[in-house]
Amino acid sequence: MELKEKWLDEYCNSCGRQISTWDKRISKVPAYKYPCCEDCIAKEYDMEPEALRRRMENVFGMRPCLGL
To answer: Smallest Cα–Cα separation from 7: which of 19, 15, 17, 25?
Structure first.
């Protein structure tokens, strides 16, 4: 099964990579003024991206789309 991601025409404020809808959603949790990618958010909190996804699901009830 091929997984797909919805990419936006926006870029990470830290590293410049194109962001997805998931990146934009999780950027709102720590109230970033400009969206950042999942990798940069995970790096800031000294976590792996998979651990960040689990944290978002367990604490905030946010689940990533199947494309991630």
So the answer is: 19
Residue with tokens 């709102």: 28
User: In this predicted model, what pLDDT tens digit does every residue of 44-68 receive, in sequence order?
Assistant: 999 999 999 999 988 888 877 665 5
Cα within 13 Å of Cα(63), Cβ side: 3
Model's pTM, two decimal places? 0.79
- Cβ distance 67 to 43 under 8 Å? no
4-28 burial: b if 16+ Cβ within 10 Å, else e: eeeeeebbbebeeeebbbbbbbbbe
